TrEMBL record:
Keywords in alphabetical order: Membrane, Transmembrane, Transmembrane helix
Transmembrane domains' residue ranges: 6-24, 51-67
Protein name stated in the entry: Amino acid transport protein
Length: 69
């Protein structure tokens, strides 16, 4: 279940999620808060590395388009 790719993905997406969550709380924007929480939590539910990285990239793209709304 735990290999280098899943640990790296959890760290990378968790760190970016924490930043998005903090940014959203500071500016009181609900979309970055929700996406940040999703980025921090979702790695616990996926063990397939392809699916883990795919969902993470999809959430990052979503964050990119909804960070200031």
């Amino acid at each position: 279940m735990f290999n280098g790719y899943t640990i790296l993905a959890g760290f990378v997406f968790g760190t970016i999620g924490w930043g998005a969550f903090s940014y959203g709380r500071k500016l009181e924007l609900w979309k970055p808060i929700a996406i940040g929480l999703a980025l921090m939590i979702y790695p616990y539910f996926f063990s397939n590395p392809w699916l883990l990285w795919g969902v993470g990239v999809a959430l990052l793209v979503t964050l990119w388009f909804h960070h200031g709304e």
